[in-house]
Amino acid sequence: MDKYVLPKDNLSKFVSEMIGKYKVFAPVNDNNVTLFKQIKNPKEINLEFTNSKVPPKNLLFCQTETLFKFTPGTKGKIHPVDFDNGGRTVFGIRPCDAKSLAILDRVFKGDFEDPYYLTKRKNTILVGLSCTQPCLNCFCTSFNDSPASPEFVDILLTDIGDKYFVEVNSDKGKQLVKTMNKLFKSATEADGKKKKEVEKKAKDIITRFQKIDGITEKLDKIFENPFWETVANKCLGCGTCTYLCPTCHCFDIQDETTMTDGGRVRIWDTCMISEYTLQASGYNPRPARMNRVRNRVYHKYNYYPKNFEVIACVGCGRCIDSCPVNIDIIDVVTRAGEVKP
Ligand code: SF4
Ligand code: SF4
Fold it and tell me: Which of 100, 123, 178, 270 could form a disulfide with 242 if both were Cys (CB 3.0 to 4.6 A apart)?
């Protein structure tokens, strides 16, 4: 992996040059909430964020996206839409959110390829920013990940004082640095040491831990256990935990029509509401909240690892921070591991 340093004075130039070439999305302050939005000026970036309220998955798997338009009726026609397929950069993505995209890739590049997601994914450069102040409910280290891991980004910047330590992890990253090589300097051994210190300090801030050893197999044995009722009793079925989760990817497809035209639209969905599995016959295979709460945990810790060999949680803590009744997935999974079958 190529390693450089970027003096902090050059950060603004680095971002400006990217803005000249790509659509750049970065964390910005929006009514006291950090969100990833397109920026036109480096001054818009909020570098003092812990993590964004909504994960940047929405830049690739949009909350609402028109798949195609159509003219209804006997002379009806389908009109393809020009979906966003230009070069783009996501600046400031955290290592956990970058991992979540690698998890989503398994679905959108699976048996059926999703051109809407994959085109954006292919054209996106991820310029990550290491966490130096993880949040209270962060637990990426439970999955042997690190708040300063370059594994899932093209370039990772780590704040080491008056400069950023830069790790280049892909050809896309190499290409980007090459076009702006005046801004970067070679990293010294001391810079590398400093990065390791910053990484250790960030890891030490993380105090929450989820016990996941053998959890996939354990869940096979406790599907009918009354434990799930006790978890579900508190849940309001609001869906916040799934909408804000960087690895959740369920969607619905609906036709929106007027008298003269229409569009087929994909929108985020949530398995936490009863309509999600409601069939046209009126039958619902997950009729009770318990079925839905249990499904959320099984999807992440049992079905996903069986299908794709990875747990579909990155330990970002968003679902814990935002659940209105304090349902805590660290606690739920750790307790599930202790339930007697
Ligand atoms: S389940 Fe919760 S902690 Fe895990 S990735 Fe989703 S939002 Fe983050
Ligand atoms: S955020 Fe909390 S209350 Fe809302 S659906 Fe998720 S677990 Fe239930």
Answer: 270
- Centre a 10 Å sphere on the Cβ of residue 40 and count the other Cβ atoms it contains: 10
CA distance 311 to 269: 20
Distance (angstroms) between ligand 2 centre and the Cα of 228 equals 14
Among the listed residues 68, 77, 34, the one whose alpha carbon sits nearest the alpha carbon of residue 318: 34
Residue 55 corresponds to which tokens in the numbers above? Answer: 């994960």
- Which ligand lies nearest the alpha carbon of 322? 2
Distances (CA, A) of 57 to 28, 61, 112, 247, 320: 16, 6, 19, 8, 18
Is there an atom of ligand 1 within 6 Å of 55 CB? no
Q: Among candidates 154, 35, 45, which has minimal Cα distance to 89?
A: 154
H helices then E strands: how many in the chain? 12, 12
Pocket test for ligand 1, best of 231, 247, 327 (most atoms within 8 A of CB): 247
| Ligand with an atom nearest the CA of residue 297 | 1
Say yes or no: CB of residue 315 within 6 Å of ligand 1: yes
Q: Which amino acid is at 169?
A: N
Positive or negative: CA dihedral 227, 230, 233, 235:
negative
For 30, the 3-state DSSP assignment is: strand
- Rounded to two decimals, the pTM is 0.95
pLDDT given for residue 259 in this prediction: 80
In this structure, the number of other CB atoms found within 10 A of the CB of residue 333 comes to 21
